[in-house]
Amino acid sequence: MKRVAGFAVFFIAVGMMIAMFLPNTFVEVLIIMICLLLGYNLFCC
User: Fold this and answer.
1) Residue 24: left (phi > 0), alpha (psi -120 to 50), or beta?
2) Cα 32 to chain center, whole Å?
3) pLDDT tens string 1-45
4) Residue 44 Cα to chain centre, angstroms
5) For residue 45, what pLDDT is reported?
6) DSSP class of residue 22?
7) Structural domain tally of the chain?
8) How far apart are the first and last CA of the chain?
């Protein structure tokens, strides 16, 4: 369980770093949706 929590926290930080460099909110939301889908598939499947 620690590994899963660490994985999630790490990618939250990566997403926040990417969001700092993107000028458009739509692109940020699109990346968030892609990451959520990817994370769900990795965790549940």
Assistant:
1) beta
2) 6
3) 667 777 787 787 778 778 778 777 887 778 778 877 877 777 776
4) 16
5) 64
6) -
7) 1
8) 16
Domain enclosing residue 13, as ranges: 2-44
Residue entry with tokens 């939250």: 12
**What is the distance between the alpha carbons of residues 4 and 32, in angstroms, rounded to a whole number?**
18
Rounded to 5°, the CA angle 24-15-36 comes to 95
Q: Which amino acid is at 15?
A: G
The total number of residues written for the chain in this structure: 45
Q: Does pTM surpass 0.90?
A: no
C-alpha–C-alpha distance, residues 28 and 19, integer Å:
6
| Pairwise CA distance, residues 14 & 8, whole Å | 10
Fill in the amino acid letter for 36: L
